[in-house]
Amino acid sequence: MNEPQIPVAPSGLVGSAMADDAVAAPRSLLGLWQIVFLVISAAAPLTGMLGAVPPAISLGNGAGIPGAFVIAGAVLLVFSVGFASMSRHIVRAGAFYAYITAGVGRPLGMAGALVALLSYTCIQIALYGLFGFFGTVVLGPLLHSAMPWYAYTFACIAVVQVTGLRGIDLNSRLLGVLMCLEMGILLVLSIAIVIHHGGPSGLTLAPFAPKQVFSGHMGIAVMFALASFIGFEATAIYGKECRDPKVTVPRATYVSVTLILVFFAFVTWAIVCAWGLKDVVDAATKQPGDFWFIQSTKYLGGAMTTTMSLLLLSSIFASLLSFHNTIVRYIHALSVEGILPAKLDRLHAKYGSPHRASYLQTLTVALPVGLYVLAGADPFNTVFSCTSALGTIGIVMLQAVTSFSVVAYFRATKKDTRVWHAFVAPILGGLGLLWIGFVLIGNLDALSGSDSPIVRAFPWIVLAVALFGIALGFVLKRTRPDVYARFGQ
C-alpha cells in the first residue's frame, strides 16, 4: 500500500416544546458507555493514528509525539472541567451554542451555532472524501474494480443516512462494535511491539522526556494531536437522550477524553519504539502512507495488515455516522428554537429520530461533494485535507469561546462557586485552546497540505460566519423577539 500522508482533523411530533421534550422522552435510554462509544467513534482513533501521526512526527516534534498527545489531552481535560460543570446546569442538544448563549448572550450564541454547523459539516464532507479515497485504495484491488472515488463516497452517504434514521440506540451499539475493533487492532499491534521489546532503541520512555517532547516544532505536533480528539465534545449534545444527564454527561466527558488520551499516548509510544528514536522521523517523512502498515506486517503479518486497512474504512464510517448524529441534533435544536423551519423538529414515528433534520443534513453534505466531483477535485488533497482544516479551526475556536463563556455564566449566576471548576480550569482551558488555534492558523499549509489563497482565507471565513451570526441575533431581537427570547433556552 502507498497512501500519502493524511493530516486528519484529526455524529412525528410537531411544535417547539413538544419536539424538545420528545427527544428526552421514552426513547432516552442512552447510558454512559453508549455516549462514550458515540463520541470516541467521532474521534476515529484508527483514522487519527494512521493519518495524523506521520505528519505530526515529520513536521512536529519527531520521537516526542507521545508527549504531544499528552499535552493536547491535558488541555482538553482542563477544558472538560468547565464544560462538564456547565452540563450539570444546562441540558441542550446544541451544547456549544447553548453554553455560549448562557454565558455571554444570544448574539454570540447565534455566532457559535452557525460556526458549529459550518465546522462539523466541513469535517463530515472531508471524511466522505477520505472514505472515497481509501475506497479506491483498499476496496478497489479487493473487488477488482476501477470505480471512481465518488462512487464509494455516495454509497457511504446512503448507508449513513439509512443507519442514522434507525435511531440513536442502534447507532451507539454499532459504533461501539466498530470502535472496539479499530482500537483493538492498534492495541494488538502495540502489545506485539512491547512483547518483542521494540525496535533498534528497544522499549524506552524517552519519547515522554522533555528533551524529546519540546524538540522541533512542538506546537505543530500538538496541533495534529488535538485534531485527533475532535468529536469528544459531543457528550453534551446527547444530554436529552440519556439517563440522568446531569451525572452521565460529565462522566462521559471525562471518560472519553481520558480514554482517548491514554490510548493515543500508549499507541504512539509503541510505534516510536518500533521504528527507533533515530529512524522514526525519516520513516514518517519518506513513507507516511505505509508508516503503520510496515510495522503491522512485521509484527502481525500480512493478513492482519489487510484487516487494518479494512478497519480504516470502518473507522471513517463510524466517524461519519457519529458526526451525522451530532449535526442532526444541532439542526433539530435550532428548529425547535425557531431559527430553522419548524417542520425540521419532527421525530420519526417508529424510530424516534429527527428524520427530517437527518435528510437535510445528508443533503448539505451530498451537494458540496457533488460540486467537488463536477470540479474534478482530488478526494484526498482537496476534499479531505483542505475542508478538514477549515472545520478544525472552527471547532477549536468554538471550544475556546465556550471555556470563557463558562466563566461568565458562573460568575453571573453563582450556581457553581468552586474556584477550580468555575474559574481557573475554564480560563486555563480557554487560553490553551486559543494557543492551539493560533498555531493552527499559523500552520494551515501543514494541516491542509496547501498554501493557496483560499486556504489562507479560512480563518476569515470562520470570522465572517461568526459576525453574520451576531448580526442575525440583533436582527431577530428587533424583528422576532419571541424567537430571540427562545434561542439557546
TrEMBL record:
Pfam name, any one: AA_permease
Q: Where in the cell is it found?
A: Membrane
InterPro entries named in the record: AA-permease/SLC12A_dom, APC_superfamily
Predominantly, its location class is: membrane
Key word Membrane present: yes
What's one GO BP annotation on this UniProt entry?
transmembrane transport
Keywords attached to this entry: Membrane, Transmembrane, Transmembrane helix
* GO cellular component term of the entry, any: membrane
Q: Which PANTHER family match?
A: AMINO ACID PERMEASE, AMINO ACID TRANSPORTER-RELATED
* Name the UniProt record assigns to this protein: Putrescine importer PuuP
What is the organism field in this record?
A: Paraburkholderia caffeinitolerans
* Lineage, top ranks: Bacteria, Pseudomonadati, Pseudomonadota, Betaproteobacteria, Burkholderiales
